[in-house]
Amino acid sequence: MTTTVEPVLHESRAYTAHDHTTCINSALERATVICQEKGQRLTALRKQVLELVWQSHKPVGAYDVLAMLSKGQERPAAPPTVYRALDFLLEQGLIHRIASLNAFIGCSCPDTPHAGVFLICEKCRTTRELDSHDNIQNLKNAADSTGFKTSKTLIEISGLCPCCQEEASDE
Amino acid sequence: MTTTVEPVLHESRAYTAHDHTTCINSALERATVICQEKGQRLTALRKQVLELVWQSHKPVGAYDVLAMLSKGQERPAAPPTVYRALDFLLEQGLIHRIASLNAFIGCSCPDTPHAGVFLICEKCRTTRELDSHDNIQNLKNAADSTGFKTSKTLIEISGLCPCCQEEASDE
DNA sequence: TCAAGAATGTTATATTATATCCTTCCACAT
DNA sequence: ATGTGGAAGGATATAATATAACATTCTTGA
Ligand SMILES: [Zn+2]
Ligand SMILES: [Zn+2]
Ligand SMILES: [Zn+2]
Ligand SMILES: [Zn+2]
């Protein structure tokens, strides 16, 4: 029995035109399975928030989610509603928080918990999650070799994505 | 002519008992020289804010600075006063911002601008700046090899400092 | 069917940060 | 020495992000 893990989303697609509904659907399906396996409840609200976070490959603020969630509703949602859902998704490893932007982004490979390395475009905000296990490990080693005991690493790299570099050189 | 650079503050002292006034005075003197050399104005206010940020080896919030600054004043300072001073100090590389804590900490080697790697104790909040040029370079290389153009790196490592590890094992 | 706990709703407030406009100060040229 | 322009700081208001506390509803399993 070989239940092969779904191939990891190629995050580089974040930079190119693509059928983004595939990204969303894939993320939602995967989240459903992951929560089932862990006995966690991916409620309608949580799923909806996850979907909203996945509306783009750019980090989304909690209040953006709140606004989208409330759109067309008779009674708009309140902040705790969104923050609680985001907290749940963070705990399950389904999204990451981008501290430098106070924003959230869907995790592109949520199957195993991990610290992310994020490449954040300063121009278009498109953010790609890099698989940099080795670099993280090296950092941890450097930290721990000083007597520190690492529990979490936060790495956010700002700069220009390939597309925005091109545009810059066009001028 | 060999105007040797002052030895870098040994940041590991952050974890041990030490004469902290030395840290503060050294930071202030160094800042004075650096600003002179760059033709920047380290005004009384800015110097005072820098001193307040340096009151400990823990990141300090802007509103903490604000409170300390206002203490005993007839009329308390307003947020922009502090944020402007902090912005100046950030620009001059005299302090760093810790995004995961929304707080600021004095830079332990401000002579040359650099991205920091911070070891943040989750228990006592003591934060040490690590000199990890190689690790940062590796990360940059990893990022740039994907076509990204890095301009800034943000690395914050949370965990337990040596002291707090000992205390934890005492129980 | 009921009880316990999880999830969500609701209201209020805390915390962090910025916009805007006005006044004061300082370096420099006249 | 005096005026001038720009930088710095004061003051007021408000934006943006996040949480506390408590009430209600929903789910699940005994
Ligand atoms: Zn996509
Ligand atoms: Zn871009
Ligand atoms: Zn010290
Ligand atoms: Zn500690």
Task: Please provide a written account of the structure.
Two copies of one chain form a homodimer. With 171 residues, the first copy, chain A, is an alpha+beta fold. Chain A has a single domain, classed as Winged helix-like DNA-binding domain superfamily/Winged helix DNA-binding domain (Arc Repressor Mutant, subunit A), CATH 1.10.10. In chain A, 42% of the residues lie in helices and 17% in strands. Chain A is built from six helices and five strands; from the N terminus they run ααααββββαβα. In chain A, the strands form two sheets. The first copy, chain A, has a three-stranded mixed sheet with strand order 4-3-5. In chain A, β3 and β4 form a beta hairpin. In chain A, α2 packs across α4 and α3 packs across α4. The longest helix of chain A has 19 residues. Chain A starts with 19 loop residues before the first helix and ends with a helix. The N terminus of chain A is likely disordered. Chains A and B meet through α5 and β5 of A and α5 and β5 of B. β5 of chain A pairs antiparallel with β5 of chain B. Bound molecules: zinc ion (4 copies). The site of one zinc ion has 5 residues of chain A, from α1. One zinc ion binds next to α1 of chain A. The first copy, chain A, binds a DNA duplex (30 and 30 nucleotides) through α4.
